[in-house]
Amino acid sequence: MPGLRAELVDAYRAAGTLAGGVPSDHVARTMIATAQGFIVREALFGDVRPEAPEGGLRGLMAMKTQKTG
């Protein structure tokens, strides 16, 4: 299944929508995990609005990494 998602990631990159730097398979697996988590949360708690994980992912993507050492 990640293979199909990796092809989607590659298509986004070819269109200039998604930057490179991370292997397509890693991005695809993260997309799958995020979708699964959203589904589980909806099943357990109901009424989950997509704005919360959307904003949370946006915040995580904006993080700056610190170099150690």
Summary of the model, kept short:
It is built from 3 helices and no strands. By secondary structure, the protein is mainly α.
The proportion of residues forming helix, as a percent range, comes to 55-70%
- Shape verdict: globular
How far is it from the N-terminal to the C-terminal residue, by CA? 38 Å
- Number of distinct helices: 3
The averaged pLDDT comes out at 83
Q: Could you state the order of secondary-structure elements as H and E?
A: HHH
Indicate the structural class. mainly alpha
What is the beta-strand fraction?
under 5%
Question: For the CA atoms, what is the radius of gyration?
Answer: 14 Å
Low-confidence stretches: none
Q: Total strand count, please?
A: 0
The major β-sheet equals: none
| Oligomeric state, counting identical vs distinct chains | single chain
Structure notes:
- This protein is mostly helical and 69 residues long.
- It has helices at residues 2-14, 24-45, 51-61.
- It has three helices and no strands.
- Helix 1 (2-14) crosses helix 2 (24-45).
- The longest helix is centred in the middle third of the chain and has 22 residues, at 24-45.
- The model has no long low-confidence stretch (mean pLDDT 83).
